[in-house]
C-alpha cells in the first residue's frame, strides 16, 4: 500500500495523475496507517523545494504558500474547515489536510479544492457561460491575398487555397501548412492569420519555419517567400522555430520579424535571426516588447533609438515604447513559452500582469478599483481550465471582485 501511495504521490507532483488516480491518492491519504508514509513523503519534498525553489507550481501568493507550509511543521494545530464540508472529509486528521495542502502548494489548486475548499463559493455569481468558458481553443481567421476570409477552426481539412505558386493546406491536426510549387512565384502575395481573445493557432510557413500564435495576435507573411529575403510582421505574441536556409550564394538567409505597424501601437522593432527558437511578446497593453531566445542567436533592433543588441540562449531583452533596451539574463524560457505548451505560468508577478493574460485567454475585461494592493503570484495553471477555476484562486487569496456581464472588477478590501 505504501508503494502505491508513493507512486501516486510522485505522479501527482509531476502533474500526471488521472481523475481516478487522484481520488485513489486522497483515499490513501485518509487512512491513519499511512500517516508516517505521508509525512515522510512531505518531508522529502520540502527538502527538495529548499534545494530547488522553482519546483513550487501554485497560484497561491507567497505569503499564503508559506502559511500552508508552516502547518506541516511539528506541533501544528488542526486546520479549520468549513462546517458544511461532507462529514467523511471533515472527520479526517489534521495531517491529512496538511498533506493535501502540501501537494496543492507543489502542483496547483485542483487537489487543494478537492479536499479543503470543496465548500467555498466564489464571491460573485458565475453564469453558466462563464463557468464553462475554456481558454486556449484553436481559433483563428485567415485572410487571403484577394481578401477572402476563412474561419480556420470550422473549415474542413484539406486544400484551402491556391495563390500563385503557393498552396495552403489544413492538416488533420488543425495546423495550417504553406508550401511552394516548383514554378516561379508571381510577385509577393501576403496572407494574414489573426487569433481572437481566447484563441491560439499554429502554422508552417512556405520555408518550413513554424509559428505559434498566442491569443489576440496576428502574423502577416508572404504566401511564398521571395529569393532575396524572409520577412514577417506580427502583433501580440508569437513563438518561432526558424528553418535554416541558404541563398544562391550559399550564404545563410536571415529571417526577419518586424512589428506590424498597420496594427501595432506600442513601438517599432525588428528581430533578425538565423536558425533559432525564440518568443516575441508585443501586446499593445504590455509595458514593453519582450524577445526571449531559447536556441541560436538573434539581433534585436529598436527603431526609435536605433539601438540593437545580440541575444544568446536564455537571454531576454525588453524594449520600451521610447526604444530603450533592457537585458534580462538569465531568463526563464520555460515560463515565457508556457502558453505554447498549454499552461499559464508566472514567477512572482503582480496581479495586474496575471489579469492581462486572463483578459486575453478568457475573452473578458478586467478593471481595477483605485489603490489596489498588487499581490504577487507564482505558479502554473492549465490553460484549458474554466474561468470559474481561476476565480477560485482569487477567492483563496481573499481578493474581492465583482462580475458584470464579461467584466471582472477587482475591488478594494472593505
Automatic annotation (TrEMBL):
<dbReference type="Pfam" id="PF04773">
    <property type="entry name" value="FecR"/>
</dbReference>
<dbReference type="Pfam" id="PF16344">
    <property type="entry name" value="FecR_C"/>
</dbReference>
<feature type="transmembrane region" description="Helical">
    <location>
        <begin position="94"/>
        <end position="115"/>
    </location>
</feature>
<keyword id="KW-0812">Transmembrane</keyword>
<dbReference type="InterPro" id="IPR012373">
    <property type="entry name" value="Ferrdict_sens_TM"/>
</dbReference>
<keyword id="KW-0472">Membrane</keyword>
<protein>
    <submittedName>
        <fullName>DUF4974 domain-containing protein</fullName>
    </submittedName>
</protein>
<feature type="domain" description="Protein FecR C-terminal">
    <location>
        <begin position="346"/>
        <end position="410"/>
    </location>
</feature>
<keyword id="KW-1133">Transmembrane helix</keyword>
<dbReference type="InterPro" id="IPR006860">
    <property type="entry name" value="FecR"/>
</dbReference>
<dbReference type="InterPro" id="IPR032508">
    <property type="entry name" value="FecR_C"/>
</dbReference>
<feature type="domain" description="FecR protein">
    <location>
        <begin position="192"/>
        <end position="299"/>
    </location>
</feature>
